[in-house]
Amino acid sequence: MKKAVFPGSFDPITNGHVDVITRALPLFDEIIIAIGTNADKKYMFSLEERMRFINETFANEPKVKVENYMGLTIDFCKEKNADFLLRGLRNPADFEFEKAIAHANRLVSGIETVFLLTAVDTSFISSSIVRDFIRNNGDYSLLVPKAVKR
């Protein structure tokens, strides 16, 4: 069984995340969307809200599971018997950052990272941009799935 973990804070999930996950579905038997918890980080949305957004967005996709974790992502992958990490790349800066992490993860754990380029129409979207729109009462409806807009 080919199982991938797609880690992130998903605060909130965006249409960019949805695009990467949807395009990765044919590649894997299961994708675990893993919401990482960082005690030092302030989130706009609670863990429960973020999990609900993702569960509603992928309600009709049995290959997608949603879980949360603390600690190293590679430890979570081992716990879930996942051999792959899934990551989306928006730009060259993302690639440089993710490449170093991927090399370290593979060296330490043997877990491979699969990169998908984001689609052109979602490549500019980030959770931080969405949060800025929300904080300033802007229209963020085109940037996120329906579950977040409610």
TrEMBL record:
ATP binds at residues 9-10, 17, 88-90, 98, 122-128. Pathway: Cofactor biosynthesis; coenzyme A biosynthesis; CoA from (R)-pantothenate: step 4/5. Substrate binds at residues 9, 41, 73, 87. Keywords: ATP-binding, Coenzyme A biosynthesis, Cytoplasm, Magnesium, Nucleotide-binding, Nucleotidyltransferase, Transferase. GO terms for molecular function: ATP binding; pantetheine-phosphate adenylyltransferase activity. Its cofactor is Mg(2+). GO terms for biological process: coenzyme A biosynthetic process. It catalyses: (R)-4'-phosphopantetheine + ATP + H(+) = 3'-dephospho-CoA + diphosphate. It comes from the Bacteria. The keyword Transferase applies. Residues 5-132 form the Cytidyltransferase-like domain. Reversibly transfers an adenylyl group from ATP to 4'-phosphopantetheine, yielding dephospho-CoA (dPCoA) and pyrophosphate. Homohexamer. This is Phosphopantetheine adenylyltransferase.
